[in-house]
Every structure is written in C-alpha cells, then in structure tokens.
Design goal:
The chain is built from 20 helices and 20 strands. It is α+β, with helices and mostly antiparallel strands and 561 residues long.
C-alpha cells in the first residue's frame, strides 16, 4: 500500500473501536493496527498462531520501535489445540559472558551514573526475541519464513503514519532521544521535536535488515553483518557494553513449562521464572479469590483495598524470591501452592491496610534506574494475543525494556536495555541476591503472558500487557474483571488501573479509580494518582467464537473474522 493510502487506512482505524466487532473464528490483538493486520493476513493465508506471532513482532519492530523490536527480549505461551498441550518459550535478553555483578561500575571500578548506564551500550542484553520466535515456529509454524517478514518489509520501505503513542513517547523524551543521530533522522524534526502525528515514516536500514533475515533466516541476526552492526552499536560511548560475537552466537532460547495455579474455578497459566510476573499474577488471583472479591462491586473502595493488599504481598514475594532458575533455587511451586496462598490471603484485614507487606525486602524498585513513575519512559513493552481457526493460541509479551531501550539503533532496530532488570545493589538490602547480575544470566522480568483455561480445559482467555511492573496488576485485574465480575473483553482492557507492583500504591489518573483515593486513605493506604500507560490486550472465548480488545491507552486493535 502506498503511503497516502496507508495514511488514510490508519486514520480510519484510529477512529474505530479498539474492540473487534462481534465474535470471530480467528483473531489477533496487538498494539498497532498494521501489526494486527499482518497477523490476521498470515492466518488467512493458512498460517498458524505461531506464524502470526512472528509477523506481528516483525511489524511492531518497525512501527512500535519505542516498546519492542527484533533486538529485545520476550516470553510466549503456546496452546496446541490438537495435542491440548500448553508450552512456554523464553527469550529474555541475557547478560554477556563478561558482565560483572555491578552494572553501574566502569572497568576501573569507579561508579557511573545509573541513568547514564541505563541508556548506554552497557545496559544492552544479548537479544533473544528472534531466536525464541524461531524456536516457536520450528515447533508450530506452517508458512515459509520469508512470507512472515513480508508485511514488516513493506511497512519499513513504503512507510507508515507516525502513531499517536510513538509521538507522545518521542515528545516526552525528545532531548534525550535527539542525542542519537539515527533516532533523530528517523523520527524528529530539525528542531529536535517529533514529526507530527500522521507523518509518513520510513526505516530503510531496518527494511534492509528484514530483507537479509527473510533471505537467510533468523540466524542472520546472530552472525555476519547484522551481528557486527549490533556489536558496533553496543560498543559506542558513553559506557560501552560487554557483548561479543560469542555472546550472540551462543544465545539459546529456552522451552520452559508454564506455571499454573487455580483461581475462580479456572487454571491460570503464565510464564515461568525468570518471569516474576507470571507467579505474581497467580498469587494475586489466588489471594483475591480466597478473599471473596467476586462479592464486591468492581469500582468500590473495598475491592480496591483487596487488590492493593494482594498486589503488595505479591510484590514482596517476587522481589524476595525471583531469579534465573538456571542459576538460583527459585521456589516456584511453593509460591503458588494453595496452602501458601491461603496463608498469604489470611494476612489481609478487610477493614485496614497492612502497615508493611510482610516480606524480607523493603518495597523499592529493582534495577539500574532510580524510582520513577513516568509512563512514557517505563512502558517499553508490548503484548500480542493470537487465536487461529484451529484453536491454537499464542500469548506473547515482547520488550525493549524501557521505552526506546538503550536509546540507540543497530541496523535501524532499537536495542534493548534489558540488563537494567538486574538488581542494582545486590547484597543485604536485596538478600538473598537472586537477581544479581552475572555473565550469561537472565534478569527477572515482570512480563506475564497468560492463558486461562476454561472448565473444558481449553483456552478461555488469552491476555497480557506492557507497562513495566504494572503489567502484573493489569493482567491480574483484567482476569478478575472477566472471571469474578462477568465483564467482556472491552471492559477488561479499559478498566481503570489499580495496583502496587511499581513500589507504591497507585490509582490511574482521570478515571473512576482516582475517586477512590480518599476512601482508601481512610483504610490506611497511601495511594498516588498517576498516569498508568499499560498496553493490555485480551482475547475471550464466547459461545459463538472469540471476542477481543486492545488497550485504549495505546494505538492497538483487535481484529478477526
């Protein structure tokens, strides 16, 4: 499609509802219309849900470079309808072999500013998204690899209109992003401000990279010219990274069995560690079910009180116990065991907030960045939900970590800054230091791609979100919205956000949740009213097929037929 026609089509999509119109046999929900269209096109061409996930990710790498890309990290759940088996895949960006325990120390041991390191080559993890998708496709794909990249190549070559969300991110961080000449050339005006919404954007360098990947396969990113481009970009000042050719060549995507627990009469399945988000979602849902949240009104102070208390308890546990299971003994099963969740729920007083959530760690942000609540800096993650006509399903969360990651590009693709997910100061303050950085280790992530199995044992909800630590609260409350309160997909995505996973109790500004601040303070809470730019996508099985919705806080859509 030529740029003028593409602009008209996207403007029309932007005025449409964020939810799909009526039930469908197959459906895709993603954070940008072009990505959702690419996925649905692959399904129409006979591709599987796994094939569609590859196509969606490739397009998002072009049109949502702030949040996700082919040089980031990802987690994915896959439901195989024929075998009725749920599988998990992990491609989190890992620490290079030469990494030390201290991200913010220079080679001579002197300390470097945390914010400087977080947006440098030092923070770039060995990218895992593409190797993970190649593994998923090898297990479940149908179409040729090059066909899956064709929509992304068209978007990069022919152009796409500047999306509203990308424009907002660029405007919020224009000064910082203008320091990178490639970002400035692609997205900013000569005065350093972002190009207007709707301006056709092209990315010739990423188009060339995608063509190389289409011709030579996903391994072209891990060796040869594309790999050298990644290494050159990470080696630049101000703080050069540790990554080598050996790190890229040796990266291994992994199959990890999902973690499942029961709540609201359903099996809730999510990503296993090193995801802390999956366990935290299950903990919150298990506690909220036991606390009887289904008996409370959705927008009541009582319901919000229970959500905040469950979120605080789950936050304390994930910060105390989560790490790379290949390196540390993560007690995954005990953390979601029924007796344990019942005991945790028993700590909640329905009439009064806890003075402090009982865990071995204070509630403070992990990672190299100082505590912050700027949603346009932190929400560098995207979620994709796919169901194909055969009933196969994919829940797929993909990230650059912070928005625009390390604030530099390689071959036109945004580099992640995933190493900021390691503990900033491992030691007594975060003991035991399960999430301390070490060579080859994978950092903890709050990404929580989730599939809820209905009473018949097949997927009933396919859900996930972006938004940093707020992912956990967004996913958990969306599931409560549907299973406890009987809401549809549209309501679950639009619901006002409430949670405490970001280190403080938060209520979403300019929503009915903000009006709960005073009643919650009367119960002993100390909520902050803030913007909460999550990106939740959800597909819900209904008697006649599937309905879906994309988060109205971003530019996404859910489409199907």
């Amino acid at each position: 499609m030529r740029p003028a026609l593409l602009l008209a089509a996207l403007l029309a999509l932007g005025l449409a509802a964020r939810a799909a119109e009526g039930p469908a046999r197959r459906m895709v929900a993603a954070a940008h219309p072009l990505a959702a269209e690419a996925g649905l096109g692959i399904l129409r061409a006979g591709g599987s849900a796994a094939d569609a996930a590859v196509a969606v990710q490739a397009v998002l790498s072009v049109v949502e470079p702030n949040a996700t890309g082919l040089l980031g990290g990802a987690l994915l759940l896959h439901w195989d309808a024929a075998t009725r088996r749920l599988a998990g895949y992990e491609g989190i960006a890992s620490a290079p072999a030469a990494a030390t325990a201290r991200l913010v120390e220079a080679a001579d041991g002197t300390r470097v500013g945390a914010a400087t390191v977080a947006r440098s080559g030092r923070a770039v993890g060995v990218p895992g998204t593409l190797r993970m998708l190649a593994l998923v496709r090898a297990d479940h794909g149908r179409l040729p690899w090059r066909d899956l990249l064709a929509p992304a190549i068209r978007a990069a070559e022919e152009g796409f209109p500047m999306p509203p969300t990308l424009h907002r991110v660029l405007a919020a961080r224009a000064v910082e992003l203008a320091r990178d000449p490639e970002i400035r050339a692609l997205f900013l005006r000569p005065d350093g401000q972002p190009l207007p919404v709707g301006t056709p954007l092209r990315n010739p360098a990423q188009a060339a990279a995608l063509r190389a990947l289409a011709e030579h396969g996903p391994e072209a990113l891990y060796a040869g010219p594309l790999a050298r481009a990644v290494l050159e970009a990470t080696a630049r000042e101000p703080v050069p990274g540790w990554m080598t050719e050996g790190d890229l060549a040796g990266y291994e995507a992994k199959r990890r069995d999902p973690v499942c627990a029961t709540a609201f009469g359903r099996a809730i399945c999510s990503a296993a560690p090193p995801s802390s988000g999956g366990v935290a979602v299950q903990q919150q849902l298990g506690m909220l079910d036991r606390l009887g949240i289904s008996r409370l009104a959705p927008d009541s102070p009582g319901a919000a009180h229970l959500i905040l208390e469950a979120s605080r308890l789950a936050t304390a546990d994930r910060r105390r116990w989560m790490g790379d299971p290949d390196r540390v003994p993560v007690p995954t099963g005990p953390l979601v065991a029924p007796a344990y969740l019942a005991a945790r729920a028993g700590l909640v007083d329905p009439a009064r907030a806890m003075a402090e959530a009982p865990a071995g760690n204070p509630l403070e942000r992990h990672g190299a960045l100082p505590a912050a609540s700027d949603p346009l800096a932190l929400a560098g993650t995207s979620h994709v939900a796919v169901v194909d006509a055969a009933g196969n399903a994919v829940s797929f969360t993909t990230t650059n970590n912070l928005n625009f990651g390390a604030e530099r590009l390689a071959a036109g693709i945004t580099l992640n800054n995933g190493l900021t997910n390691f503990a900033a100061n491992p030691g007594p303050a975060e003991a035991p230091a399960f999430n301390a950085m070490a060579g080859g280790k994978r950092p903890v992530t709050t990404m929580a791609p989730t599939i809820v199995l209905g009473p018949d044992g097949a997927p009933e909800l396919v859900v996930g979100a972006g938004g940093g630590a707020r992912i956990v609260d967004s996913v958990a409350v969306a599931v409560v919205e549907v299973l406890a309160w009987g809401a549809d997909a549209r309501r679950a995505t639009a619901r006002p956000r409430i949670g405490a996973q970001n280190g403080e109790e938060e209520l979403e500004a300019n929503t009915p949740a903000a009006a709960l601040a005073e009643p919650l303070r009367a119960l002993g809470h100390a909520p902050q009213v803030v913007e909460m730019n999550t990106g939740l996508q959800i597909l819900r099985r209904v008697p006649s097929g599937w309905e879906g919705a994309a988060d109205p806080r971003r530019d996404g859509v859910a489409i199907g037929d």
